[in-house]
Predict the structure.
Amino acid sequence: MTFLLTKIFLKSSMQKITEQNGIKDVRKKSKAQITLYALLFAYLIGIMWFLSTKMINVLKEINAETVFIDLVFMMVFFLNILQTVFSSINLLYFSKDTDSILSLPLKPYQIILARTNVMLILEFAVNILIGLIPLIIYGVKLNCNALYYISVIIGLMLLPILPVIIVSLISMVIMSFSKIIKNKNKFQLFTTLIMLVLVIAFSIGITKIDSETMTDEQMAQTLTSAGSFTDMLKTYFPTFGFLVNSIHSNNILTLILETVKTIAVTFIGVVIYLLCAQKLYFKGLIGSLYSGEKTKRGKVKIKAKSKRLGIIYVFKELKILIRNPVYLVQCVLPALIFPVLFIGLIFIASDEELKGITNSLALMLNFNKPLILMGLVAIMQFFAMFIYVSITAISREGKNATFIKYIPVPLYKQYIYKIIPNVLMNIFSTLIVLGIARYLLPIEITDLIIVFVISILMNVSLSMLCLIMDLKRPKLQWNTEYAVVKQNMNLIFPMIFGTINVGIVIFVNTTLKMYSAYIQLVIIAMIYILANICIYIYLYKKQYELAKKIM
Amino acid sequence: MIEIKNVSKSYVKNKKSVDSLNLEIKNGEIFGFLGPNGAGKTTTIRMITGILDPDEGYILIDGHSIKEEPLEAKKNFGFVPDNPDMFLKLKGIEYLNFLAEVYKVPVEERQNRIEELTKKFEIYDDLNSYIESYSHGMRQKIVICGALLSNPKNWILDEPMTGLDPKASFDLKEMMREHTKKGNTVFFSTHVLDVAEKLCDRVGIINKGKLVFVGTLEEMKEKFKEQGSLEELFLEITEE
């Protein structure tokens, strides 16, 4: 029964984008789509190959190449924790099928196990993609035997179990207070933010390891000291140690022994988890389901003044986005967090380091102004890739997306209103980046204004293109709001469009380097004004065709 | 007035969900649209409201084609969809204010209209709360209030009685009668045959995408030579 339930939960959380109203879209994936996925996969492997090779070579020089295995396992381990932080509360407590599942004659442990299995399966997929590839590269480079590959696979399969059950248990403890918390939206946002703070702290720690400005010697030192961090992990998470040891040993007996030890510890962990979860989970679940906000009585404010529909519509979009903790954290916060993180990193750097960077940038500004200004535009495009407002604008509405089709407002106008929140988020992150630039470098205000305008022009086209992609591939049948963002392949599009934008900036900068910064910027501005006009005309002309999948 | 002329729609090849549908809902008429699950009721309503495009045929709302003049057609109807879980993160009043702006309800009329409708459905005191805190029935009521806010001539309601308490259900039926007395149109789908029997001037029965009957209850009895209730006649027609 647990297996069947897992299958159902998994299917409902991974529902296909093409399924609409129970009717399967039988069209096969187009060649272009397959090529796109293949290219992305090749790109991912290329990056991993480059980074892994560099790290292995550096470690080899100091005869510490085996630390690489520890590092990959550590990375995968933390990734499992981070992923579960984001998914556990949503999958355990805010799945839409919860109400109907509770009324079925199922044993509590079956529901808990099935929900946990879904999280685990998602982690296995991550481990295969993120962990297996670098470890295969390691195996190829060091001519490892078959036993190495077997122990790697066993290790990556068993590794996520403990982190998933520990994080889930923490979520259950926090959520067991949900009954006494009156505003469950704020509570959900608060819990996710607490966990997010941990994520940021971790990211800052990692950035210290992954610095491109390091010399090979410094890098090797940092990598080995990070390797010693894994020793600490081995103490607190024994299975981590067992699995890493089994790979290092390259001995069949050790592999069997360490695997048995891992399975035994994991089994004890799962039993404790199930015992505690049966006490905690349903308490929190009932609380989160039935402790809605109290009705607020008071004077009803009926708008006595008529505003422009566009303003009201955009405000409605923003309210829905900001009041939903899942959407706020997944779609909006990255836009705010990344630039803030950027500021944080600058202040973390020592005065000397900061002075060195500032001086060299200031020098470069004198000699190669276009490069600095174009660099700023490119950085802002990088932040724009993490804003998922426009790419989920239709999908977030779910089944109610049909609303836009039966109200007497032209569709193309509604598309524009839905794009504006994405552009507003862009403006915010752009202003932060420009503020930092002004703080660090003697850039003139007029230059900053020009860069700001160009960045916004680029972001308008990126936002419009993302909305078009969401209209063409809407994910309207979802089970949890979390799925709209985390299990939505469309999210690669902001990255693709952002990369193309950066590519255009680099292209213009390299081909027109004989011209001044202003000429280059004006040319980019013209390209994007033209692009925006073309995309707008496309949105206008194809407004009904684009909405065909909303039904 | 709603005119549906020779409308067909298929989701998959060689299987029509709605097949050559012809219907005319006249002014001053309450029209009940009946049929078993999956018969094509919601597909028809989605085509009338512009959510779906028909493969063949055309639909006119007060003479405006939903395909050729969508904005004019949409201004002339208020629609209650089958799922009332809409805009859950908005407060009731925010939702109604938004719709008042969308349907361009004159500012001076808004106050009275919102008060009148929400007090009738007994949700006025809850307007400052988020819609997500409403019960299913309350959500249904706020969606109905939103649809009727601009006082549209044509009401198109998909299963409007679902989740309503007896008083709200009674009030809605009264409102339908009052609305059609003024020469307007009400088109609604329902599974509650008792409601259709007592309320509708005419009914249409759709089965497997085809309209198998349209007319008054008396005409139905005459056609099928049966003297039973609408429920018995409905079962007889749809089982054939």
